[in-house]
Amino acid sequence: MDIEEEAASNVVPATHKSVEVDDDGRSKRTGDVLTATTHIITVVIGAGVLALAWAMAQLGWIAGIGIMIACSCISILTYNFIADCYRYPDPVTGKRNYTYMQAVNSYLGGKMHVFCGLILYGKLAGVTVGYAITTSTSLVAIKKAICFHEKGHDAYCKFSNNPYMIGFGIGQIFLSQIPDFHKLTWLSTIAAITSFGYAFIGSGLSLAVLLSGKGQATSLTGVKVGAEVTEADKIWRVFSAMGNIALACSFATVVYDIMDTLKSDPPENQQMKKANVVGISMMTVLFLACGGLGYAAFGEHTPGNILTGFGFYEPFWLVALGNVFIVIHIVGAYQVMAQPFFRIVEMGANIMWPHSDFINKEHPTKLWIFKFRLNMFRLVWRTIFVVIGTIIAMAMPFFHAFLALLGAIGFWPLIVFFPIQMHIAQRNIKVASLKWYALQLLNFTCFLITVLAAIGSIREISKNISKYRIFTYKQ
Where do the Amino acid transporter transmembrane domain residues begin and end (predicted)? Predict the structure, then answer.
């Protein structure tokens, strides 16, 4: 029995008021399609949506739109497979799989379970470092927007990211004391709302450029090879752009945490499938709007991020507001991604030292008007985690390249390979049947996309390492 299964088995069945607990003895789940959709949007509609205009510029209209729609369709299909595997062996009445790892173990066995865990939790830890970097970038962009407005667009407006990373880390230390994923709905809702806010601001500013008649020339095939872009550069950029679009669809790292908040009636898999369709469809519309309008506004010179890369200078307050929304969103998204990582460590500690008061005892605490239960192990270990992540972000602010590599490696196994293999096992699909071949073709195609994205990330890492001095980055 592994950590997750043993922790689940330690649940003490309620002896009274059975209506307040679910079939597994845990507190009654109250989530629904709306809350699940909110969690999905919080994770997938991240600040990366503002980089899709750059991706569109590298690919052009045909490939850019085609890949965005294709990735969305693939995501709906495979996340529906994942939803059906929440329970084992029957998707409606079977035993719950509380985590992605448990589901992989139930359907595919121990070796795949270990492989899944390494990728899943490695990616979760890496994402939190990337969020610290992205937040500091947006905070610096706010200061730069004010600086450019006051001193002119040619002024020297470069600032260190380090103070902002430290501030973000301090804030996350406090938020990380939220006990578990089930208490995050309010934070996730605020994050989802702000994600739409900055996406609409980026799209709106791009549309304003077009309406003013200042839009730049675009192409069906993207950036042209010439004096500024060599053939090799074009290829590397295409690889990176494909990875950016594919990875933007990912919420596999928290999909079972989301499902584990859903009430049992109607069945969880039915609710999650509806949430998948709604959440991913909304994501696709925003992706196409931000990517298409940004590319139409800036053409071949589209910046990597249309808000932090200063594709726009005025109105400066709106650019600043967009970056404020990014910060608010990432504050919430950090917790949505970190809580599953926190939980697996705390489960393991509880199993190894079941009688330790330091690890297991909850202390009722009141701070001003706030009442909460303080756990010393949770306080110490989560604080250490946030501090280490913040230091790494400060030391290597180009860590987004490492993060892109983690994401590239995680895309194929988490979003495509495991869901397809679990679906085949669950439905007993015969090897060499037509459906089996179709699923394996999809599997192989997405594997190639992952490999290409990983190659692009490795190249970016090698370029940055050779020219960077630790803790000295200014944006």
Answer: 30-458
